[in-house]
Amino acid sequence: MAAPSGAVSCEDFAEFQELLRVMRTIDDRIVHELNTTIPTASFVGKVDAGQTCKELYQSLMDAHTSRERIIKNCIAQTSSVVKTLREEREKAQDDVALLKQLRKEQTKLKLMQSELNVEEVVNDRSWKVLD
């Protein structure tokens, strides 16, 4: 599955997670993909299994690369927001709303960083099945 066209919004964490869930469909269905793309003995002459595996491998590589790029991009964007809010917080330490916003963004950043770990587990599982 290719990366979505256009810019990815990192503002809403739920939207970010939903995008990753949709993009991980290929990983979730890897066993099914293998079963439907690798020919059985009766169809071995009609389908090029090597080419089919190559295409599946490439689409998996593309999906992993695009998801990692999206996650790292959102982490960078959110880190920038956190940095800006920290600087504003130093200037206005009595601003409770600013503190709440900073905490919210810090939490979102931690959740996005944890998605990198999830991504690693998903990728490892897919490659084990493909090997």
From TrEMBL:
<keyword id="KW-0175">Coiled coil</keyword>
<dbReference type="GO" id="GO:0005758">
    <property type="term" value="C:mitochondrial intermembrane space"/>
</dbReference>
<feature type="coiled-coil region">
    <location>
        <begin position="75"/>
        <end position="105"/>
    </location>
</feature>
<dbReference type="InterPro" id="IPR019171">
    <property type="entry name" value="MIX23"/>
</dbReference>
<dbReference type="Pfam" id="PF09774">
    <property type="entry name" value="MIX23"/>
</dbReference>
<protein>
    <recommendedName>
        <fullName>Protein MIX23</fullName>
    </recommendedName>
</protein>
<comment type="similarity">
    <text>Belongs to the MIX23 family.</text>
</comment>
